[in-house]
Design goal:
The protein is of the alpha/beta class. The protein has helices spanning about 15-25, 50-60, 75-80, 95-110, 130-135, 145-155, 160-174, and strands at about 1-5, 30-35, 65-70, 85-90, 115-120. The radius of gyration is 17 Å and the shape is elongated. One of its GO terms (molecular function) is nucleotidyltransferase activity.
Length: about 170
């Protein structure tokens, strides 16, 4: 059985990878699909191409995982790809309420089922938004994201990280 793990993945986190790795053990094949929403244009830190490249690198060790993108309704993508299972990760009860609504709508309009996978407790606090915030101040995000995302964030905020490293060097000398 094949499944789709949709999201914006801006950037992909260790929580995403936890859910994806576990889904890859359950399903024959999982397609990670970066959903491109034209109305959210300019609200992502990374371009669609950058997010796809990061995901390709982060998932290279998972032989039954592929990466794709789609612009439009997820149920239309599911129909085109002839896939009937959506994977969604849950971190907290607040995620469940929102995801339950979406799952019901997707089943109603697209006849697709949603399987929820709880994120491991250690990743329940990690979100792409929080990771971007920490990285924007040059904070250590290495445990919260796969290496590919950490490298992309360090490139994106290179000036902040360089400034922070320079400050550490001056403190060590003084």
């Amino acid at each position: 059985m094949n499944a789709v793990f949709p999201g914006s993945f801006d950037p992909v986190t260790s929580g995403h990878m936890d859910v994806l790795t576990r889904a890859a053990r359950i399903f024959d094949h999982v397609t990670v699909t970066v959903m491109h929403n034209a109305r959210k244009q300019g609200r992502h830190l990374f371009t669609l191409e950058e997010r796809l490249a990061t995901l390709h690198e982060a998932t290279a060790h998972l032989p039954n995982v592929s990466v794709d993108s789609f612009s439009g309704l997820l149920v239309d993508y599911m129909r085109q790809q002839q896939k009937g299972i959506i994977i969604r990760g849950l971190r907290a009860v607040s995620d469940y309420e929102y995801e339950l609504q979406i799952a019901h709508l997707n089943r109603q309009i697209g006849e697709v089922e949603t399987v929820f996978i709880m994120a491991a407790t250690r990743w329940s606090f990690v979100s792409s938004t929080m990771v971007k915030e920490i990285a924007s101040y040059g904070g250590d995000i290495s445990e919260m994201v796969p290496r590919a995302s950490a490298a992309a964030l360090r490139r994106m905020f290179a000036d902040v990280y360089a400034e922070r490293e320079e400050g550490r060097g001056q403190k060590a000398e003084g």
